[in-house]
Write a structure and sequence with these properties.
Rossmann fold; 2 domains; 13 strands; 41% helix
């Protein structure tokens, strides 16, 4: 069935995104650009689960939110028996939302939350645009790609990971990042704002808003070595971690960094997980990195993401299992090699696609056939 939205001046988009910030915020970035490209003549409805982070984040951002009962596969237990029924119920909710909202396009960013909306879009004949932020297509996005009008990939290397029959649908536009990565602060101003020595080289270590247990444990273990270094460390621990009560003078401990743009500006080297959003942000700001892929990632996507950067000489990869023996020596080596850091920074900058959100929004408007007044 071909579903035709009503013809008026406002552009309507239905977005399925959730589970993690890596799925939610690229979608929000694209919607923000759709609003800019249409002179705010854009209405968005988001769909997601009933109990994950999108359920609170999306309404807080001011968007309408529709919850679905779908849940992820948690292994063979009683919940497995109800999973097919939850999927079917979620597809029905998505189809009903499409019929009521009459979107010009449906956008899916992956994870199980996207599946019902993607299938509903295909059945209702609405253009479907899939955003894939990792090198390898995720399980849900791989299933939705044959039904999609277009698939936006974050890495040129991703194209070879799709069937040849889908190549005409693939667009290497990068991973959308919200405009909140502030690049205005100078290095000295950024360090001062973070209560760091403005003139001292800086390493920024973080593991995400909730921290990373193994990264935190390794830094804590090697504080005496770090104390002897000529550089300083900005250590974001995450909100659930209690740092040692006594840390060296060249270590600044914060549970959370509100403005990542300032932290990036302060840093000569970034140490982090290799999530797609982090890589996209580092590509925009052009910072060398040591990546520690999350070992529990379902399809090992963080390893693949990091390996692309290593192959481009933009980053160093340290396995989670090797943190205790390798992380701090790797930091010390890089912080004593300014020439290598500069080369890595330039390579990371080449990976960056600062217009990814706007380019994806432009593609969505084109594929939808919208002819409103931009």
């Amino acid at each position: 069935m071909q579903f035709a939205p009503s013809q008026d001046d406002r552009f309507r988009v239905l977005v399925a995104a959730g589970g993690t910030g890596g799925h939610i915020f690229p979608a929000v970035a694209v919607v923000e650009q759709l609003q800019a490209l249409t002179n705010n003549a854009c209405d968005a409805v988001f769909m997601g689960s009933r109990d994950r982070m999108e359920h609170t984040i999306i309404p807080a951002l001011g968007y309408r939110y529709v919850a679905m009962p779908i849940a992820g596969f948690k292994g063979l237990d009683l919940s497995t028996l109800t999973l097919p029924f939850k999927v079917l119920a979620s597809i029905r909710i998505a189809r009903q939302t499409i019929r009521e909202f009459r979107p010009h396009a449906v956008v899916c960013t992956g994870a199980y939350i996207s599946y019902p909306a993607g299938i509903a879009a295909a059945r209702e004949g609405v253009p479907l645009i899939v955003l894939e932020s990792n090198l390898n297509p995720g399980k849900t996005n791989a299933r939705l790609a044959p039904h999609a009008t277009s698939v936006v990939v974050a890495f040129a290397e991703s194209i070879a990971r799709y069937p040849a029959s889908l190549r005409s649908k693939l667009h290497d536009l990068g991973n959308p990042v919200r405009a909140q990565i502030d690049q205005r602060p100078t290095t000295r101003d950024a360090r001062a704002a973070l209560q760091l020595d403005p003139d001292r080289p800086t390493v920024f270590v973080f593991g995400g808003s909730l921290g990373a247990r193994t990264i935190n444990a390794t830094i804590a273990q090697h504080l005496s070595t770090i104390a002897e270094q000529p550089w300083q460390l900005l250590w974001q621990t995450g909100k659930g971690y209690t740092a040692p009560t006594s840390v060296p003078d060249n270590v600044r401990v914060v549970p959370f960094v509100e403005n990542m743009g300032v932290a990036y500006a302060a840093a000569d080297l970034v140490v982090s997980r290799s999530g797609a959003t982090t890589i996209a942000e580092l590509g925009i700001v052009g910072k060398p990195a040591i990546f520690i892929p999350l070992p529990s990632a379902s399809t090992n996507e963080q390893v693949h993401n990091a390996e692309v950067c290593v192959q481009r000489n933009a980053a160093v990869l340290v396995r989670d299992a090797d943190l205790s023996s390798s992380l701090v020596p790797s930091i010390v080596d890089l912080m004593h090699d300014e020439t290598r850091r500069a080369s890595m920074a330039a390579a990371m900058k080449k990976l960056g696609k600062p217009n990814a959100a706007r380019d994806a929004a432009t593609l969505i408007l084109h594929e939808s056939g919208w002819r409103g007044h931009a």
